[in-house]
Predict the 3D structure of the following.
Amino acid sequence: MTLIVAIQAKDSIILSADKRFIYTDNQDTDTPSFHSDECKLHLWEKGVVTGGGDFLVIQRANQWLQQNQNILLLPKKLNDIKKERIIEAGQHEQISYSSIILSIKDQDTPQLYAIGWNNELEKIKPHDIFIFLPKEYDFCSESILWLQNLYSEIHDYCQFTDNQSWINHYLNLLSSIYKKQSLSCESISSDFHVFFQSSSYSTIVHMIND
């Protein structure tokens, strides 16, 4: 599965994802295939897109978005892709639970949108956090203090003196979360990638979280 932590500030977004994929290629729901060392963040014309769940569902949704550039039509397309994958691989929670989150910068302020298991487009509110994690895995019982700390430490891009200070602030916060979760769940890697986007600057950072 995937651990995604996305943060919507007033003037910027931070979107992180671990590096471990699960790929379902047959009817055997008890033996998922794990693929590590993957970057799950994919740049598109207006920002970045990622997702959790079945590898091929996310890959095909990303390919469609790259070609069509229309997030309003993406929920229906994601649902269609899930139906195609169920025909190919059988009914599996990795497929039905697949979700997408992306950033888009139409004007000055980057904005996060999520499409969850219900296939509805959701706009993430300022100073809010979106978390995607393995199904039936209770993040809060394991890391409620880390999550509370993350909420309290959401700062806007304009509050930092330079880009590196902004990046370091969030890397320090996210590193603790990914490290903790990787020790509790084999489908989450401790290493992760983060996409930082403001009105004037964007970059992807690969965090080796030893």
